[in-house]
Amino acid sequence: MNYSFKLLHPFLYYKSGEFSSDIPWKHKQMYHQGDYEIIFCTKGPLYIQVGTTQYVLNANDVLFIPPYTNMFGYRLSTNPVNFYWLHFFAKHEHSLLEDRELSANLSAIASGSFASSINDKVILPDFFHVNEAGKILIFINQVLDVANSYRYSEQENDYLVTVFLIELSNTYLMQLSANQHFRSNKVDKIKEWIRANLSEDLTVEEVARTFQLHPDYLTRLFKRYTHRTTLQFINELKIETAKVLLLRTNLTVSQIASHSYFIDEKNFMRRFKKMTGLTPTEFRNAYIHTHLNNPRIDPKIPLPTQLEKRMDIKRNI
Questions:
Q1: Rounded to two decimals, what is the model's pTM?
Q2: CATH number of 185-285
Q3: Architecture of 2-182+290-311 per CATH?
């Protein structure tokens, strides 16, 4: 079952954070009164029950929790856990979309075309796994950064949350279309091989030679199924690795260049600037404000007055 939202208005940001625990822990019982929640797990397993359904979340799993539902941890996590959490409101009630209703649009999505019946919607399932999580991490950190720093306009996070949910929806739909109808086993194998050998100084010619393909044919194959060239895919993987390291570690730029599989720091900085428009240091400084909570710091965040007025919600939260 999929939740579908019309993009007539931006979603309304409520609260967000990053949770981390290195001691045995389980989620406390909560009730969502009108607000939706997204949980993006980066380290698990995490055991959460929503209503009567039990979920096990591992790294890169996404859980969507609708309003007016009970949720709680049904089992203790004995390994360290880490996840992002984001609460938001929608001005228009969601509708439910069956998988079979969605399947008719997958062909257009897989070919990179607009699917006219759903391109004005955000569509998310209750649970799915993100194959490539780099962009999702960037978007959620941007939301946290803005939420925890002064902004003259209260609407900025509404639009950031909207963009984040569109990105989640795009990721889900692209994966769904590939999994159900248009998956190229050869391209999938090549992508996995590239990921496994990213530490090598890979060239398009070397990748093509490994799979006994002509380099030009390999590039055409990649463009057909991934909408990027082979070289663009290799460089994107390296840059996404660098982005995550910049956000989640205190490593120096030089160390990050090495850990991101670049031969030298200057080449890394040049490619990073070209792909992001920022230097690595500028990128890191752009996301310095975050809210991290843990088993000992679990703040209860009240609904902002201005949000309550805009939503016209008469509830106790």
A1: 0.70
A2: 1.10.10.60
A3: Sandwich (2.60)
